[in-house]
Design a protein that fits this description.
- The structure is a single chain.
- The chain contains five helices and two strands.
- A hairpin with a 4-residue loop joins strand 1 and strand 2.
């Protein structure tokens, strides 16, 4: 059986950025945080080309990858806290607002996050190109 790859983000990374205490091992909060970190790692590895090899080669910063992964986990925690469908009330005027989360995934990468971790193509002029027609 192959050794599982090293996680790109840990619960400790997330709580450090949030300036929060790391939940004790085995608690529901820690299990949730560990699961979201695993999901973020899997999402990055599925959407970013050769992330582990590029980190090992030094062409991609491990700090940058960790930062994107932490951002993904924090967004997922906010999404869970808000709820996929929640109701809010405002006072002194009584009003009810229903909020529907923008996504249905718990952990996902935005286009900007994918671009931040994608390899830079040397000589590419802002994605522009020309095709000779003759």
């Amino acid at each position: 059986m192959a050794t599982p790859p090293t996680p790109l983000v840990t619960a400790s990374d997330v709580t450090t950025l949030l300036a929060a205490d790391l939940p004790a091992e085995g608690t529901p909060e820690r299990k949730q945080l560990d699961e979201l970190c695993e999901q973020a790692t899997a999402e990055i590895r599925s959407k970013v080309v050769a992330v582990d090899g590029r980190i090992a080669a030094g062409s991609l910063s491990a700090v940058r990858v960790r930062g994107v992964a932490v951002d993904m986990v924090i967004a997922a925690l906010e999404n869970i806290e808000l709820g996929f469908r929640s109701t809010g009330e405002t006072y002194p005027e009584v009003g009810t607002t229903q909020v529907i989360a923008a996504n249905r995934l718990t952990v996902e990468m935005t286009a900007g996050q994918i671009a931040a971790l994608s390899p830079v193509t040397p000589g590419a002029a802002n994605g522009m190109y020309s095709v000779r027609m003759s």
